[in-house]
Amino acid sequence: MFRSLNLNPDQIPTKKPVKKDKERWNARYKEFTGGSASPDNLLVSNSGLLSRGRGLDLACGHGANSIFLAGRGYWVDALDISHEGVRQAQSRARGLKLEVGWLVADLDDFPIPQGIYDVALVFYFYSEPLLPKILGALKPTGLLYYSTYNYRHTSLKPDFKPEYLVPEGGLGRLFPGLRILLDEPEAGSEGNLSRLIAQKY
Ligand SMILES: C[S@@+](CC[C@H](N)C(=O)[O-])C[C@H]1O[C@@H](n2cnc3c(N)ncnc32)[C@H](O)[C@@H]1O
């Protein structure tokens, strides 16, 4: 059972045809059943910045980062379009006796609650129209941890959709309302990752 985010009924997206992305990710997570999922190094190595409060993990997948945050004492809302990913995440969290507010939702039209989160996580998901909503989700002093593939990734995976990649220049310049704590536009051994840690003023 998925805990609800206390949304107004008229904020809940209406039913629509199943998306290709959802099917693709469900199939992938089914294949990976039982596989290990570790929290991202950006989060773990910089966890000294964390305190307590309310956390948000967007496109949480099988939930390693949400679970890490919940283990640090945060009350976490974690969303993904894949019910299979969320099911695995929920089962892993339950095994660890950690409570997380899991939700199956499509971020293309999900009304992300605004101004209530002390920390927001986005790992390996990029959608340009979502950026203002991510920024808006944070409280003043709220932290954003963001790491995902950038435009250089197409040299490794030519069929990766360019709209899912961070453009040249990195993530920091896309969040003008944040104080940058770490901005690595071309990280990783291939330079195909953009990483950001930033804080709302
Ligand atoms: C590369 S995985 C990353 C998962 C997780 N953040 C991690 O780092 O392990 C991308 C995730 O985005 C989710 N996703 C793709 N499109 C989405 C959408 N429109 N709304 C919500 N989640 C979506 C997929 O289901 C998948 O779990």
Bound molecules: S-adenosylmethionine
Structural class: alpha/beta
Largest sheet: 7 strands, mixed
Beta-strand proportion: 25-35%
Shape: globular
Read across the widest sheet, the strand sequence of neighbours is 3-2-1-4-5-7-6
State mean pLDDT (0 to 100 scale). 92
Instruction: Give the end-to-end Cα distance, rounded to a whole number of Å.
Output: 36 Å
Tell me what you see in this structure:
The chain has 201 residues and is an alpha/beta fold. The chain has five helices and seven strands. The chain has helices at residues 20-31, 41-45, 64-71, 83-95, 131-137, and strands at residues 54-58, 75-80, 101-104, 117-123, 138-149, 178-187, 193-200. The protein has a seven-stranded mixed sheet with strand order 3-2-1-4-5-7-6. Helix 1 crosses helix 4 (83-95). The longest helix is centred in the middle third of the chain and has 13 residues, at 83-95. The model has no long low-confidence stretch (mean pLDDT 92). The structure holds S-adenosylmethionine (SAM). Residues 21, 25, 59-61, 64, 80-82, 85, 106-108, 123-125 line the site of S-adenosylmethionine.
For this entry, give a set of tags.
single chain; 201 residues; alpha/beta; 7-stranded mixed β-sheet; 7 strands; binds S-adenosylmethionine
Give a quick summary of the entry:
The protein is α/β, with parallel strands linked by helices and 201 residues long. The chain has helices at 20-31, 41-45, 64-71, 83-95, 131-137; strands at residues 54-58, 75-80, 101-104, 117-123, 138-149, 178-187, 193-200.
